[in-house]
Amino acid sequence: METMSYLKKITVDDVYVSVLSARRELTPEGDLIRKPFEKDFPHTGSIIMDAVGKLLRETRTWRLADLAERLRVDTNDLYAALRILTEEGADEFISNYRLKQAKEWLACTDLELDEVARRCGLNSPEALMNRFRRREKTTPTRYRKTRRPKNFRELYVWE
Hints:
Layout: H1 12-15, E1 22-26, E2 32-36, H2 47-58, H3 64-71, H4 75-86, H5 90-108, H6 113-119, H7 125-136, H8 140-147, H9 152-155, E3 156-157
Antiparallel strand pairs: 1-2, 1-3
Helix pairs in contact: 5-8, 6-7
């Protein structure tokens, strides 16, 4: 599907809000400060994508029909809008958002896999493992081992 040149493709990164509360950073003077993550919902220039992004942050659903119901729009209309605005299918966009959350939880916290799965809207760690393996070609545990710094507790703040 070719998009008209005046439409900017909206990505998960354009609507994503970190699951973390803050990051600790060293100042040039050597002091350790707590730098909060921005929690305002990003504005994409599309009221549809702004609303979808906000709902993805506030809910745990993986289903387009749930988002459409919350937005009080027809599921097919929302699907078509997401297809145009993101240049990918709605299910793929939602999965990418949820997996970005999972990756952040895995790389920055010590939450158990069942808790990561729950926070990402899945019923079990097996469901997370299956989706993660299919999309990322690795397991959540292996991802965590290769991406989480040893001092993650000192670096990140989460709830």
